[in-house]
Predict the 3D structure of the following.
Amino acid sequence: MKIDVFTLFPEAFEWFEGQRHVRNAFGSGLGFACVNYRDTTPLTGGQVDDTPFGGGAGMVLRVDVVAAALEARYRVDPQHLPHRRRVLALTPGGRVLDDAFVDELAAEPELTVLCGRYEGFDERIIEHFASDAVSIGRYVLAGGELAAMVVCDAVIRKLPGALGHAESAWEESFSAALEGAPEYPHYTRPAEYRGWRVPEVLLSGHHANIKEWRLEQSRARANQGPQP
Ligand code: ADE
């Protein structure tokens, strides 16, 4: 998979690119590039945003600036881009990311991720250049960079070779293997701490019983709703 992230703060992704699962994925063919909107802005003085028509607080990322950045990168009219590859515009009001959406994105050969800033995007960017408006939750961040890292992290850890064990992304929270339920509880040594015992079944070595217990726990959590 090839991922391009468009941002005003490419340096914000240096930490992310150094993470082990991301480096593992690089070794298995992942391409990850950050593109700075400012590098190709057609405006003077590196300007990329402007005040909103109709008034109001904050600044809005300009449509001509994003168009120039996309055109410079892909050498096509950015209006045609969403027909060729998934272009995600990160915005709090978009489709909320969940495990099924992540699976969908992880199956793509190429992703373009557009980070907004300040008050976000000129709406024409979302309407004409993006295939999807994506939200990581119904709250507002100061910019799209953290949201982009969340999306990329969730997608990249699904790619073959990203995680140590091929199984690790298979039987985890919200996966089909667990019927879409949250994951069962995990325990490690010591088997007893302050009188708190690890469930006996996990110490039994009886794999079929352990599997059944875990599935029951997942189902119970699904019926319980969010954990404290
Ligand atoms: N940009 C600002 N807030 C966001 C959110 N919650 N999800 C995606 N992008 C955002």
